Every structure is written in C-alpha cells, then in structure tokens.
Amino acid sequence: MGNPEVKGAVTSLSSMFPSEEVQKAAKMVEEKLSEKQNEMNQLKEFVANNTSLINLVQKLPDELHHDIMVPFGKAAFFPGRLIHTNEFLVLLGESYYADRTAKQTVEILKRRGKSLISKVDALKAEMQDLEALASFFDSTASEVAEDLVEIREYEEDDSTERVSQSGPVGLESPNVAEADNKVSESEDDGYARLMSRLEELEK
Questions:
Q1: What are the residues whose beta carbons fall under 8 Å from the beta carbon of 127, sequence distance 6 or more?
Q2: 67 to each of 52, 57, 70, 87, 144, how far by Cα in Å?
Q3: Count of CB atoms within 10 A of residue 123's CB?
Q4: Rounded CA separation 195/156 (Å)
Q5: 175 with 23: CB under 8 angstroms?
Q6: Residues 162-192 pLDDT 10s
Q7: CA distance to 66, 119, 122, per residue, from 130 (Å)
C-alpha cells in the first residue's frame, strides 16, 4: 500500500488579488455603501415624518376647530381656522384620493409606517453585507501591500487500498497504527519543507 504524501503550494496574494483591482473594488464598495447610507437617511426621515403625522391626525378630532397660520407662498402666512377636523382627503396612490375619518387615516398611515420599517430593515441587512465586503477588501489590500503569501497543504495517495480494522471495537490493528505513524511522519516532513520554502520567500 502506498503512503499518502503531504504536498503544498505557496502562492503570493498579489498574484491572486492584484493591488489595482483590490483598490478599485474597495472604492466601488465604498461608493455603493455611501449611496445606501443616503437612502437610509431618507427612509428614516420618512418614518419620522409619518410618525409625526399619525400623532397630529389623532389629536385633530379632539377639537371642533383649530386656529392656525395658513402658509401663503414660500414666506407668507395669514391667520385661518381648520374645521371638519374628522375629515381627511387621503392619497391612495396613482393620483387617487378618498375621504377618510381620522381613525381610518391613522390605520392607513400605520400600514405605510410598517412598510417603511420593512424597507429600513432590508436596507440595514444590505449595508451590513457591504460593510463586510469593504472590510474584506481593506484587509486584503493590507496583506497584498505586505507581500504576504498563501500556503495550501494537501495529501496525495497513490493507492486506493484501505486498511480494514479487525478485532473488538476500540482496539487498533497494528497495520492501522503503523500506517498512521507513517502518515504523521510524512505530514511532518511536508510541513518542514513548506516552512523552509516560506522562509526562503520571506528572505
């Protein structure tokens, strides 16, 4: 039976991840992350405005009318009075409007709020993935700059024969123990050769 031989390969990270490509990829991820952050800020603003609107709609029916300052143009205001405080014209979508009570309007706004929160959660998960990717590219760029190498070890067996274990469970056959010792010695020799090669590369 042939003994498995431990072999290895030493590969420079710069050959697998060219510095220019890593920097380019890192820049693209950072730009995408910045775009998602802007989207997140906008969504959070929508959530805050929707919450404020819900609070306002809930309070309006408490009074029959409200004295307010009505905006006129971009900078002018004039005194006015808000009446019919339990009637709201609600945008349903696609330029369709409907008259709704305060309670119905609040229910619609709460559903919209849940939809916004779902979008925020989905965007958070996407941003976490981008942050992990950015961290990977940053660490890879540092390793490439330091001219690090990757070492891979593998075993090659020139025989398909297997040693079968005989006797009571828990007892090793002498052939199995001898084969294990040879594999261990072969692994030690392969590791020593790889370490020697690594030291030569570092020099």
A1: 33, 36, 37, 40
A2: 19, 15, 9, 16, 68
A3: 16
A4: 19
A5: no
A6: 433 333 344 344 444 444 444 445 445 544 5
A7: 49, 16, 13
* Whole-angstrom distance, CA of residue 21 vs CA of residue 78: 61
- Under a CB-based contact definition with an 8 Å cutoff, are residues 182 and 3 in contact? yes
**Residue 194 neighbours by CB distance under 10 Å:** 18
Q: Pairing state of beta strands 149-156 and 5-12?
A: antiparallel
Residue 61 identity: P
H-type alpha helices, the chain? 13-16, 19-59, 102-145, 174-202
Q: At 154, which helix (H) or strand (E)? A: strand 149-156
CA angle 173, 178, 180 (to 5 degrees): 95
Q: Which two tokens stand for residue 121?
A: 């959660």
Report pLDDT for 26.
Answer: 80
Helices 102-145 and 19-59: angle between axes, nearest 10 degrees? 160
Q: Which residue has the tokens 């849940």?
A: 114
